[in-house]
Amino acid sequence: MRYSLTLAASLALSAVQAGPIVTRDHVVTTPTVNDGIILNYALTLEYLERKFYMEGLANYTQADFVAAGFEDPFYDNLKEIYFDEQVHVQYLSDALEAAGITPTNELVYSFGTTNPMQFVTLSSVLEGVGVSAYIGAARDIMNKDYLDAAGSILAIEARHTAYIRASLNQSPFPNPFDTPLKYNQVFSLAADFIVGGSSPVTLPFKEFPELMLQCSQYYYEADRSSVTFSGAFKQAAKDFGVTRHTPIYAVFFSGLQKIPVQVRITAGNAGDYKIDRLPAGISGQVYVLLSKSSTDFSDENTIAGVAILEVYKKGMIPATPKEKCH
To answer: Alpha-carbon distance 32 to 294, whole Å?
Structure first.
């Protein structure tokens, strides 16, 4: 599973069973982009978020959220977040049409949540990915008006993230910096939820081979916890011809840090990669991929990813027990 959340197993399973329309590639290269591609990239993410909140508000009532521990005015604030996503979709669509560029459209999604807690937990992940996507794309935007708009949307998405994290009793600002992600990294995460539909726009992004996290019965704690990547060695051997002697690195993205940790192959026949200790100094929503290089973390060197971990600072894990793996 890409997500180190208690709902992750069910979400990942539902996405796989539904059959995403996006196919994974063994070799992924860095895409060439322009402002039109970037706007459609952003629109793709905003459509996904808009649909997510629309379904959540339709599936769960105000009373459902209160019963799950999300007291008023949480439900009304979710409506405000949904409204924001609607406005973002309209703005980006209008901007593309004004520039004479065909905008993408809404696709078919499967989010796999079955209760309000799962919905809010996934909301935190999606909002965090959205923030990382806008930060990562900002450097490539040439039109100053588009850059202003992207910065404005980014700020709102960051507010969404902080509010949702606080509602989950997580730190609303776990890191002094948010984490930029590149196009294929974000696309690999978002595409897990796309299960159908078609678009008049072909974007130059591809998914990396999936990186599955073995569910842990403990919270992830910086400079302490181990992480196992299920079947990752077997998959890398099949896709890229790596051997037991090929050095592979788990690269952790947290804020502006990119920290490589060499993996080892676990005993037995599972074909897992593992690191025995998370890096010190990482926290919050942390992203990880597997790379063939300890210095160049380009798309070309990525062999699997991206996965997400919620990491607590050392000595600051919650007192309440973590929900058991299913």
So the answer is: 24
Q: In this structure, what token pair is assigned to residue 256?
A: 């502006």
Q: Please report where in the chains the tokens 């606080």 appear, as a residue.
A: 166
Would the pLDDT of 324 be above 90? no
pLDDT tops 80 at residue 8: no
Amino acid at the residue 12: A
- How many whole angstroms from its chain centre is CA 60? 23
- For residue 241, what are the β-bridge partners? none
27 band by pLDDT with thresholds 50, 70 and 90? confident
Residue 278 has pLDDT above 70, yes or no: yes
Phi, psi torsion values for 190, nearest 5 degrees: -70, -35
Angle at 203 between CA 202 and CA 205, to 5 degrees: 135
| CB atoms inside a 10 Å sphere around CB 255 | 17
The answer to whether the predicted template modeling score (pTM) of the entire model surpasses 0.85 is yes
> Rounded CA gap, 179 and 283, in Å?
11
Burial 94-133 (b: 16+ CB within 10 A, else e): ebbeeeeeebbeebebbbbbeebbbbbbbbbbbbbbbbbb
How far lies 217's CA from each of 4, 57, 265, 324, 326, in Å?
A: 10, 31, 21, 6, 10
What is the C-alpha separation between 153 and 148, in angstroms, rounded? 9
